[in-house]
Amino acid sequence: MALAPALDLLRLMRPANALVAAAGAYVGALLARAAWEPTIPVGAAMLAAFAFAAAGNVRNDLGDVPVDRVAHPDRPLARGAVSPASAGVLAMGLYMLALAAGALVSWAGFLLVLAAVPVMEGYERWAKARGLPGNLLVALLTAAPFVLGALAAGGVNAAVASVAALAALATAGREVLKDVEDVEADRAHRRTLPMRVGARRASLVAAAFLVAAVLLSPLPWMLESVLGAAYLPAVGAADLCFLVAAATGPRAPGRGQRLAKLGMVAALIALVLGRALG
After folding, report:
1. What is the dotted CATH code of the domain comprising 1-156?
2. What per-residue confidence (pLDDT) applies to 3?
3. Residues 28-60: b if buried by 16+ CB within 10 A, e if exposed
4. Which residues of the chain fall below pLDDT 50?
5. Distance between the two ends of the chain, CA-based, in angstroms?
6. Among 3, 113, 122, which residue's Cα sits nearest to residue 59?
7. Model pTM greater than 0.90?
């Protein structure tokens, strides 16, 4: 009997997305010249990234119940399968887990996670309803796992910084496309970029972010010696996803944002391949 509620709580966390954040922390550690063998600080950074991303996913659904009843009625909170109180307890527990894991990384790692909490809460309580500022805060939070992983491996270098910037740009583009996709469901609750400037112009802004990510993609290979030449053809697959997403966004924003997400996963794979063959 308890299996269904537990599965709904797990679904609130969106573990697949949270695992991508954990992978980002691991890639950040690899780019900071960490060995392939796991260490306690690197494992802690991955756990902190996972828990924090999961907490953010829960908080996002808590704040989006009225919107999700229209746009995503199958989500647990929207269909009443999980109570807001239970979701709030889950989010708080995940925040605490992220902070505890961050403390195992280093003092700097703990402070990074600690600073990310008010950023996430600021997004949920204020910036999300204002469109582009919220998109940019999500982009900033998406870049953080790479930095956290690098801190677990000794420090941030130029490759890590450029990858974090690439992740932020790609995320900003995807977030704007998500707002274009959800414009009707959001209309009564948010004032997003497509509502302010129109869907087509907002899609062009998203395209600009995605093209900027493509232009930035060679930098991690150029700036540090930790990536081998295999990175360049591998990241080409990610760049192709971003470019097609940019071109598709004005006509099919849902497809565009999914392609952008696929590009972000492909970029992670390219970084691992480039490091493995470097």
Report:
1. 1.10.357.140
2. 60
3. bbbbbbbeeeeeebbbbbbbbbbbbbbbbbbbb
4. 1
5. 51
6. 122
7. yes
- Distance between CA atoms of residues 39 and 45, nearest Å: 10
Query: Count H helices, E strands: the chain?
Result: 14, 0
CATH class for the domain made up of 157-278 = mainly alpha
- DSSP designation for 130: G
State the Cα–Cα distance between residues 128 and 122, nearest whole angstrom.
8
Cα–Cα distance, 2 to 94 (Å, whole number)? 20
Domain boundaries defined on the chain: 1-156, 157-278
Q: How many residues does the chain have?
A: 278
Q: What does the pLDDT read at residue 186?
A: 74
pLDDT, residue 120, reads 95
Which candidate, 147, 126, 217, 140, places its Cα nearest to that of 175?
A: 140
What pLDDT does residue 1 have? 41
